[in-house]
Amino acid sequence: MSISLRRAYEKSRKNGEYRILVDRLWPRGVTKDALQIDYWDKDLAPSTYLRKWYNHDREKWDEFKRRYFEELDERPTAVAKLLDKAKQGDITLIFAAREPQYNNANALREYLIERLEKGH
Question: How many domains does the chain have?
């Protein structure tokens, strides 16, 4: 079981993993065929308010994660489905942000790993 990340604009290499789009908005200029996702749940993405507040400002990263994790805690059904998929096999979180490290997919990956390690 692994949780990997892939930018929506990178060439897809679907190798048996379950691909989940974790953004609230569909990536611009990417077709459904090119993205090859298995699942998209907008409840896994940060709220529009939080996304706009953060605006990929690295100085806000820790506070963004704290607020995003609180939002995820309020969405137990969406999180449970993702955790179940992660327990079944490899999943890839697909995101559109240009920033490879300080983005919601990275934060979500951290959140999921913490939950899995605690046995959720």
Answer: 1
